[in-house]
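Action item from last week, closing it out:
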Amino acid sequence: MTSTPPPHRGINALIIPSARPAADTPGERAATQLLHLRTAAVPVPLLAAALELIAPQLQDPDPATRDAAADIHARLTAAIEDAAPDR
């Protein structure tokens, strides 16, 4: 009896080729896949949730973490503002 592997789901469903060796962790696999993407459509509520999740890192004692969090926070805020309909 032979079995077929289950279909790819999530980020692995993209099956974007990579010149890098196989990644070990889900985060590394996601990063490898996302390097090839130029744009992505994300619902505004998901962006707002990500904004809330990153906000505590703005007060992190590590300056590098604070800087990275501030950059991501600014990008998420801009994406949310860009998605708002013009008045």
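Closing note: The CA atoms of residues 12 and 40 lie 16 Å apart.
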